[in-house]
Amino acid sequence: MIDLDEMKQLVAFADLGTLSKVAEEFHISTPSITRAMQHLEQYFGVPLFTRSKNKIELNETGRLAVDHARKLLSEAEEAVLQVRAFDQRQHTIVVKSCAPAPLWELLPKLSTQKPGMMVSSAICQNDEVLSAWQDGLCDVAILPFPIDGAKPFMQENLFVCVPEDHELTKHKSLTFADINGFNFLLRTELGFWDSLCREKMPSSRFLVQTDVSVFDELVRASSLPCFTTDYGQLQDGYPDRINIPLTDNEAHVTFYLVRKPNKRR
Q: What is the pTM of this model?
């Protein structure tokens, strides 16, 4: 059977040029490297080197062997990575959600129900969540519309969050048409909410902030409106702002959850 360590040493010889440098690289003696190269020649059944009194070089066959050794080592490394990734997937629950609030609700429950499992979650656009589910790349998918096997999970409603002296506070409710053209603070990783707002408000500009703490500071210091939800209000808590509900159908969402059969530890 071919020895991968010897193949690594063969490739190293091609890269470094001398047996002594290979020996130094692998922290073994030069005679050990010499024996390894001889063993490879025995395995292949052909000479791989041209030898002279003080020099050893790869011949044409040896150079071909090096090319194949590189491929073999790459495939072996890939095999190890895939096996490890497969094993990790057996101990990981992968969740893809179209919005953050369902994760806030779901992840603590998963951690309690499956204490021996890791949970990996991501907020994605609807098509990404659906594609991941259909391709078997996630164990739980959360979408704002039903698919086969999905069940209603939770509801969320969108609000405009404005300072108390903002002109929009004269309204008890709003529509996307009412706020189209106003500039908004917007947090990243909102999933489909982000796409929905941009689609419904083509005349608006959005100041996007990735850092949650910086976003909160901007909300408290700025006169720009932002968005929140009935669920998000429990998380954000901006006492000097007023939350005005949006009445568009799209602003009232039922999230649906679909999951694969339970993984066992």
A: 0.70
